[in-house]
Design a protein that fits this description.
By secondary structure, this protein is an alpha+beta fold. The protein is 51% helix and 23% strand. The strands form two sheets. A three-stranded antiparallel sheet has the order 1-2-3. It has a three-stranded antiparallel sheet with strand order 4-5-6. The radius of gyration is 20 Å and the shape is elongated.
Length: 163
Amino acid sequence: MEELFAPPAYAWKRLSPKYRSLRQLTSLVVPPVLFTIPALIVGVASGRWWISGLIWAAAVVIALVRFAFVGRSWRSWGYVEREDDLYITHGVMFRNLTAVPYGRMQLVEVESGPVERAFGLATVTLKTASPETGARIPGLSPEEATRLRDRLTELGEAHASGL
């Protein structure tokens, strides 16, 4: 089974370490923030504030567990640019290896939301001829995202035209 996800005879390129920091921050902040409002509603509606405390404690536990797994998740991401296709791998428990042929690519997007921009990161998304398929590579530096976008666009055009 391991050979199914074995890297090709190329070196995997990895995501920026800033992406790990971004994921760690969001893992610690988002669950408590999301659980605070329901905890307050339960406390006000029932008058039993200890239930609110339990809900918020559950949020803290979820945040800590998510934080503990960020490093493994970050290390699982990688991509390889080969002659005819792009390999993308990720996942710890549920592993995924995607091979995107350059000739099937129709669109290459670069995205960066406000939090990503604050960390100096961008995401490259590939759209293929089939609406069910595509791929994305998060956590790239803007320079690498631009380089990858330009290279994939160039390779996609060359392979689509049969050159």
